[in-house]
Amino acid sequence: MPTPAEAPDKRADQRPEQRNEPWTRRRADIQFQFTQAARMNAMGELAVTLAHELNQPLAAINNYAAAAERIAGDDAELRDLLRKMGEQAARAAEIVARVRDGAHRSEVALAPLALPELVAEAIDLAMADIARESVVLHYDFDDRACDVLADRVQVQQVVVNLVRNAMEAMQDLPWRELRVGAAPDGDLIRVHVIDSGPGVSPGVAARLFQPFVTDKPQGMGVGLSISRGIVEAHGGRLWVERASGGGAAFYFTLRRAPETKRACETPARRRGTRRPRPAGP
Ligand code: ADP
């Protein structure tokens, strides 16, 4: 879930070439903002989920204590203890509600941004510790799907989550292929992240976007629920389909920014499709 709305960082939303800033410095900058936001998102998700889960048992304790107090008869000491018990449960519920309200779910600061640039940066972050040669990466950005209204850091969280999940799903496979791009979808722009992995397992498919659902030994299971919260806060939708090759095809929509006249400079045009190293010794 997103962090509280930040003041838009105008400099950060400019392209590196506009800012005339060395890429390594900008990368460190992006990495820092990204890590901060990821931490806030994970903590917020935890707080909101815990608050939601604790609310019901705390209300139940309060109700049981009140019922027990009514039938406690003449034992004033027992009635006093039960009343205190109910008060403490109500107090705990208030604390939980305060934590939940402080988590500020799904607030985003929207600005017009160039989608291909934003996605390319996110892929750099997602693949920082992955050998680039081990995956064939296709960028498919339609020229009409360039300008979006988005919170850069938050949408990058979504892309990084989807790309990391895709890479993890394909990690034991000899052939790894990832398609990332965007196309117009009515009034919106639809982004896709499609992998050549085994697809979503039936065990998690029905609860995929719920928090703490994972089939990974080290997984936290919050990536997709956070991502859905971010996309919905942008007025979009995040969903998964089965890719034609059997892998997972994740899609999300974003609102279109007012047209700019500049050409959509896609990473594909600048860098082309990446090929893996030939297999073998
Ligand atoms: P985590 O990655 O910590 O498990 P997520 O919320 O990001 O948490 O993902 C939840 C689950 O969704 C994963 O554990 C995995 O089972 C499934 N999943 C997500 N992306 C993919 C994918 N590209 N291919 C197959 N399964 C996926």
Describe the structure.
With 281 residues, the protein is α+β, with helices and mostly antiparallel strands. The chain has 2 domains: 25-104, Signal transduction histidine kinase, dimerisation/phosphotransfer (DHp) domain (Helix Hairpins, Orthogonal Bundle); 111-271, 2-Layer Sandwich (Heat Shock Protein 90). Helices cover 48% and strands 16% of the residues. The protein has 9 helices and 7 strands; from the N terminus they run H-H-H-H-E-H-E-E-H-E-E-H-H-E-E-H. It has helices at residues 10-13, 16-19, 23-70, 76-102, 115-126, 152-170, 202-205, 223-233, 267-271; strands at 111-114, 136-141, 147-150, 177-185, 188-195, 238-242, 248-256. Strands 1, 2, 3, 4, 5, 6 and 7 form a 7-stranded mixed sheet that branches. A hairpin with a 5-residue loop joins strand 6 and strand 7 (248-256). The longest helix is centred in the first third of the chain and has 48 residues, at 23-70. It is elongated. The two termini are 44 Å apart. Residues 1-14 and 275-281 have low confidence and may be disordered. Adenosine-5'-diphosphate (ADP) is lined by residues 161, 165-166, 169, 195, 197, 199-201, 204, 208, 213-216, 219-224, 248.
